[in-house]
Amino acid sequence: GQVSYTYGQGKSIFEGTSSQNSSQWNFIPTVNGKNNPGIGNTAFAVGHRVSANAAYELKWNDNIRTTFSFFYNGQQGQALNFTYDDNNSRSIIGDNFASGTALFYVPRDASEINLVDTDDATAAEQWTALDAYISSNDYLDGRRGQYVERNGFRAPWNHKIDFKLIQDFSLKFGDKEHKFQASADIFNFLNFLNKDWGNQTFINQSFGSIQIVDVESRGTDPTFSFDPDFAEGLERIGDVNATRWSMQVGLRYIFN
After folding, report:
1. DSSP codes joined into one string, 84-130
2. Percent of the chain with pLDDT over 70
3. Contact 185, 164 (CB under 8 A)
4. How far, in Å, are 16, 121, 125, 127, 225 from residue 115 at the CA level?
5. What is the pTM of this model?
């Protein structure tokens, strides 16, 4: 058996992931404008990760062996930003480009965010819901009275267990012994046992940004709105490839 722990962190000015410089500049999450992004957390840091494996072999006789192996991986989710969603496709930070890249200021109380009534909820109802969401999120609650950090929040941990069964056996034909190995790998073994287990959870986001409040108007005293149902659609179960179990089988002939 074996257990290992990994932690990875890094800093960057911008990630440089686009094929065009204009969009690389446009999508920098920032407080002070895209010409002054400063150094922030990189989106590519691993964060915390724990992995382990264990194997046990049963030797029935000189010709037959069975090996059971389990592999575990537990890892923090993707690094994400909480930002404003600018409905007019221009940034609240004043550079007139790229909606959804201005980092969110976490209000201490209702006096620090100018919410306005919408067709769905009054400003008071929106603040009650927003305050409750902030309190439920340890990262946001710890940033009250401050702007969030670039890539400062991470999606939930995900845990996955894989299982491998190996059957070694040999057959003798004439004077020659032929060795074979049959194997079966079940990926996301917990989901194989129960369809409600092994689910991989992700955050609905756009290019690494969770757009938490809408910008209703700009200027020296901008106004905002918050969807009271925001939290209900935030987390999702991963798609088929991420969550559903799968299996591969193999047969190997081992040369002497």
Report:
1. EEETTSS-TTTT---TT-BBPB--SSGGGS-B---SS--HHHHHHHH
2. 94
3. yes
4. 35, 10, 10, 7, 5
5. 0.82
